[in-house]
Design a protein that fits this description.
Radius of gyration: 30 Å
Structural class: alpha/beta
CATH topology of the largest domain: Rossmann fold
CATH architecture of the largest domain: 3-Layer(aba) Sandwich
Number of domains: 4
Number of helices: 28
CATH superfamily of the largest domain: P-loop containing nucleotide triphosphate hydrolases
Length: 733
């Protein structure tokens, strides 16, 4: 029988089936290696009593404190008993409560003066913070060695769950720590020595059982390098493999459709658009597939850059496909591209240009005849450009010669979907990924590391900045009245407005109702227990109240596609004054005459989402106005977030704020890869330097040895850290 490497050993064998089962179910830890890489979240110091004054409500916490008092009280007319223990750390007090038969052991253990670690979920009772039936571990008396282990210089506090306290995880780590000596070191010796990094076994030992703070710092430095370097090697190998793939070089003709299109543009491209176009055209002219990420601020003209790239490919005899995340957006792109191209989009039609091509739309809700014609135009090559939703990916969609795939708002597509479309070319087509969500440089290097990056950060000439204000509806209700007056003023001035709500409001949808209830229950303010505001209800109230007499319509995701398109068409044509919508309008919707937006319950949206929504106004020559309505109290984190959005129009700055407020795993495409984030100590914002340096080192290593034949340990670590699903995720990125 083969010997199982120590780090691949099942936890069941080492720490017992019961604890192993809880670790697998609640923490996703299955092997000795998994547990060794489950690092402490922080460390409590001997003699240091954790601050009790700022404990987070509704969160599971571990605290080190001293018992101040303990007393047994009767309740329920003397029929029941409860033990109340007050613990202190000098900064504040916390009440512990034990009921019924569960009071005897803590009553014996938790005498005044006793120090212990306590773990439980923070709740409130009579306006006081408390832990009900917390688990605890005494930090004095008994076996001196055991005390030392717990109350040692630095007590590791692990990410824990209600089912498994931090100290139980610590005991399990003690059982597996000897196996750290067998950890395979992925860093090449020259890199490790050159940067003065610890060997991996030593780093694992130190992160779990540090003697000093310097031990923790040295261990973290080393472990960050592991994560950054292994991930960057995987990405560098993808980029290298792509350079080995064949592709058809696509160079625009001297006097083709692109030249004709450029000649009729009523404006000059911005410097940024010209620079980015040059980068894209350079890539298209090579004989391996382009892999480029185009990120641009809301309204910076990404669609224009993408359209020119598509026209260049059509010039070179190929076809281009643009994949949009929603039908509303696919129809919007189709409409605006046909408008921009004029008769160049009417090849084969009366009055069409002889240098033109056909631009077809393909979505799931099209009628059978229109769909048949679109499919025919694609397979014959009659249509040079197709814009569609995931309907483009279906097997029956065949291209004559697919040369370029443009993916809009990439983060909304699963990797399999993108891959299916790319496989429709005779040779791998060129790929341009667009996003209006600004991505900090390090995230781009980490998430989109197999793509070259282009950034559009200039707004087209004539665009006015958008004024953004927070409307505190709870503190100052008259501010909300004024907001509706401002909407009326914009409409009277010949403009239009959006009102955005977090949900639709048709409660036949039980999921929406449950979601609303959950959102209300987790609201930050105790007084705020109402469900999120809904499109259908708000539209009705506005039409009957503050916006009576205006043409108010609704738009949301559960409407029939034709109805959605009809509302958007009429709004774009100026036949609707106020559109009350969900975030279906978040991306790509372009109505230059819309100048005002009111976002209801704005605190329920993320920072980047608010920035995206705001980008729907101020798209013409008139200035834009965005009002963020919130019922949250002024001191709440939610209001601070809204204040940040109101304070800057810089999407890159906002994306940093957004990232700092979210878990790293969300950023690394966890939803797309279906696996836990492999980042444990690396923080993509703080560790910018490590990521940039790791990328350089990785590129050098892969260039010298693409198969990593001389680095078997790195190869092993790559296989372990980037499990199969994640490899596929990177593979298809």
């Amino acid at each position: 029988m083969d010997h199982v490497p120590a780090l691949e050993e099942s936890l069941k064998k080492v720490i017992g089936p019961a604890t192993a089962k809880v670790m697998a179910e609640h923490l996703g830890l299955h092997t000795v290696g998994d547990l060794l890489h489950h690092y402490p979240r922080r460390y409590a110091e001997r003699g240091e009593l954790t601050q009790l004054s700022d404990l987070p409500l509704d969160e599971h916490v571990t605290v080190v404190a001293q018992v101040a008092s303990a007393r047994i009280l009767g309740f329920n007319a003397g029929r029941g008993q409860r033990l109340e223990v007050v613990i202190t750390d000098g900064s504040g007090q916390l009440q512990l409560v034990f009921f019924g038969r569960g009071i005897h052991k803590p009553h014996k253990d938790l005498l005044p003066g006793t120090r212990a670690m306590f773990a439980g979920k923070v709740s409130t009772f009579n306006r006081k913070l408390q832990l009900t039936h917390p688990a605890y571990e005494l930090l004095r008396g008994g076996d001196p060695e055991a005390v030392d282990a717990w109350a040692g210089a630095l007590i590791p506090i692990y990410p824990a769950t209600a089912k498994l306290e931090s100290w139980k995880i610590a005991k399990a780590v003690d059982a597996v720590l000897p196996s750290a000596a067998e950890a395979v070191d992925p860093l090449p010796d020259a890199l490790r020595d050159g940067r003065g990094l610890l060997p991996l076994p030593e780093a694992l030992e130190m992160i779990h059982r540090p003697r000093t703070k310097a031990d923790i710092a040295a261990a973290r430095d080393r472990l960050k390098w592991d994560e950054a370097f292994v991930l960057q090697v995987a990405l560098a190998r993808r980029r290298y493999a792509d350079t080995q793939l064949p592709a058809v070089a696509r160079r625009p003709a001297d006097d083709g459709i692109l030249t004709a299109f450029d000649a009729r543009l009523p404006f000059t491209l911005t410097e940024g658009q010209q620079k980015v176009s040059a980068e894209i055209f350079g890539d298209l002219a090579t004989e391996h597939p382009m892999h480029r990420l185009l990120q641009g601020e809301v309204g910076s003209g990404k669609t224009m850059v993408a359209l020119r790239a598509m026209l260049a490919v059509v010039d070179a005899g190929g076809q281009a496909a643009m994949l949009a995340p929603t039908e509303v957006l696919a129809q919007q792109h189709h409409r605006s591209i046909v408008e921009m191209m004029g008769d160049l989009a009417e090849s084969g039609m009366l009055g069409g240009s002889e240098r033109g091509t056909k631009v077809v739309l393909l979505t799931g809700s099209m009628g059978a005849a229109a769909r048949r014609q679109a499919l025919l135009d694609l397979v014959t090559g009659e249509a040079g450009i197709v814009i569609g939703t995931h309907a483009l990916i279906e097997d029956k969609v065949q291209f004559h010669d697919l040369g370029l795939v443009v993916v809009d708002e990439q983060h909304r597509f699963g990797v399999e979907q993108r891959d299916a479309l790319r496989s429709k070319g005779k040779q791998p087509p060129h790929l341009l990924v667009m996003t209006a969500t600004p991505i900090p440089r390090t995230v781009a290097m980490t998430v989109f590391g197999d793509l070259e990056t282009s950034v559009l950060d200039q707004l087209p000439a004539g665009r006015k900045p958008i004024a953004t204000h927070v409307v505190p509806a709870a503190d100052k209700p008259h501010f909300l009245d004024r907001a509706w007056e401002r909407v009326r003023e914009e409409v009277t001035g010949g403009h239009q407005a959006y009102v955005v709500c977090p949900r639709i409001g048709d409660e036949t949808d039980e999921k929406a109702a449950a979601k609303a209830k959950k959102a209300a229950a987790s609201a930050e303010d105790d007084a705020e227990k109402r469900p999120p505001l809904a499109v259908l209800e708000v539209a009705e109230q506005l039409a009957a109240g503050p916006l009576a007499g205006l043409r108010v319509e609704v738009l949301h995701g559960r409407m029939a596609p034709d109805d959605k398109d009809d509302v958007m068409r009429r709004f774009a044509a100026g036949e609707v004054d106020v559109l009350v919508a969900t975030t279906v309008i978040e991306v790509g919707v372009n109505v230059p005459n819309a100048t005002a937006m009111v976002i209801m319950d704005a605190d329920r949206f993320g920072v980047s989402q608010l920035h995206q929504l705001r980008g729907r106004v101020g798209r013409g020559s008139a200035p834009g106005l965005c009002l963020l309505v919130s019922e949250m109290p002024e001191a709440s984190p939610a209001r601070a977030r809204l204040g940040a959005v109101a304070a800057t129009l810089d999407g890159f700055e906002l994306s940093r704020i957004d990232l700092e407020q979210r878990r790293e795993g969300d950023v690394l495409g966890q939803a797309q890869s279906g696996v836990r984030s492999s980042l444990r100590v690396l923080a993509v914002i703080e560790d910018e330097e490590v990521i940039a340096e790791a990328r350089e080192e990785a590129v050098a290593v892969v260039a010298a040895d693409p198969d990593l034949a001389s680095l078997p340990q790195l190869r092993t670590a790559l296989d372990a850290l980037l499990d199969q699903e994640r490899e596929e995720y990177l593979d298809k990125g």
